[in-house]
Model the fold of this input.
Amino acid sequence: MVLEFVVLLVLICLAYMALLRIDIKQANYAIAENMVGYFNALNKQEYDKMQRYLYPTDSKEYLLNMMIKAKAVGVTSVRLQSVYPALVDGNLAIVGFETSTNAVFQGQDLTARQTDTFFFRRKSGKWYIAKPEDLIDIPAQKISDMIDAYKPIMKENMAGSIVEQRQYNIASLQKLRETAK
Done:
């Protein structure tokens, strides 16, 4: 009787772990799909379309700030280069990504490569990019713990691209310096 119970418990645990893996894979796919849509809209400067990828709260001020910043620095395109695997914890996730941004500054075409992270929140089964104000109800310690837990994933995924990013950014900086002379 005890052996049967232990076997049943092990089978339940294995089934649960399999379901978690499936959920994490689905979350990663949905998050990556969301990011592609968000950056495609950003690249086309369709700020109103970016709204559908953001957590459903008031995003007007956030989008207005994005538009003002993009225009102020002369952004001509923003491309999503890669999305790292997400770290999912219930209805909250953190994901790293690489972008390249082209801008025209004082007549010079500049390209910068960046690595950054977004937090995502799931609402009604859908994953959304969480703006900073969308995380206010999440304990700061949980956010800090997720960032710490995600650092090795970032480090592993950035390893190959850090040299390339540095080369892009140094070339852009040199162009900027030459323009300033």
